[in-house]
């Protein structure tokens, strides 16, 4: 029994050292210097651009079609807005640089649906003050590691069992 407990502690320590979500610096700039603050202040919900954030594990990044829902015609003199129509005219997709991604080493499962819809956790809890950003951040605003996730699970009084996230 004692050796099993020791194995469990060693396993926990080794898993705890693995970064759950990597904070990758962008390998260049974002295709559009998106102003979250301007859009949020007009009442746009995150799910309008990040479709499926409430229904699926992965919250998508906005497509050119998503942007064109509002910006197919000129709304302002902002050159970033004009870029959207230029991308569309060339038939090019927006190639956003992902800032958050699960580390393959973590072997962890994360579901936006589980956290956003079922857990009612605000986006800012994990993504930081993105709604206040007037330009895209060069890297993730919040760095996740196992301690970050365990602390949140304990605070919310939800399972901290390994199998809850590691499958």
Mean pLDDT over all positions: 85
The profile of the biggest β sheet is: 2 strands, antiparallel
Low-confidence stretches: 2-26
Distance between the termini: 24 Å
Strand order of the largest sheet: 1-2
Q: In one word, what is the shape?
A: elongated
* Relative strand content: under 5%
User: What is the strand tally?
Assistant: 2
Order of helices and strands: HEHHHHEHHHH
User: Which structural class do you get from the secondary structure elements?
Assistant: mainly alpha
Supply the number of helical segments: 9
* Gyration radius, in Å: 19 Å
The proportion of residues forming helix, as a percent range, comes to: 40-55%
In terms of quaternary structure, the protein is: single chain
Q: What does this entry look like structurally?
A:
This protein is mainly α and 167 residues long. It has a domain of 82 residues. Helices cover 43% and strands 4% of the residues. It contains nine helices and two strands. A two-stranded antiparallel ribbon has the order 1-2. Helix 4 crosses helix 5. The longest helix is centred in the N-terminal third of the chain and has 15 residues. The protein is elongated, with a radius of gyration of 19 Å. The N terminus is likely disordered.
Task: Please give a handful of descriptors for the protein shown.
single chain, 4% strand, two-stranded antiparallel sheet, elongated, 9 helices, mainly alpha
């Amino acid at each position: 029994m004692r050796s099993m407990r020791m194995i469990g502690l060693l396993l926990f320590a080794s898993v705890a050292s693995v970064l759950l979500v990597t904070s990758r610096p962008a390998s260049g700039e974002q295709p559009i210097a998106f102003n979250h603050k301007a859009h949020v202040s007009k009442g746009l919900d995150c799910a309008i651009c990040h479709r499926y954030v409430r229904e699926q594990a992965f919250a998508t990044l906005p497509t050119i079609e998503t942007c064109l829902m509002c910006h197919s015609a000129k709304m302002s003199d902002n050159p970033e807005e004009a870029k959207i129509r230029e991308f569309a005219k060339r038939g090019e997709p927006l190639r956003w640089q992902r800032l958050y991604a699960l580390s393959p080493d973590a072997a962890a499962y994360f579901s936006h649906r589980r956290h956003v819809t079922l857990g009612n956790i605000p986006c800012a809890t994990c993504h930081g003050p993105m709604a206040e950003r007037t330009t895209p951040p060069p890297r993730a605003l919040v760095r996740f590691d196992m301690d970050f996730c365990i602390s949140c699970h304990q605070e919310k009084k939800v399972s901290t069992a390994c199998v809850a996230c590691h499958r």
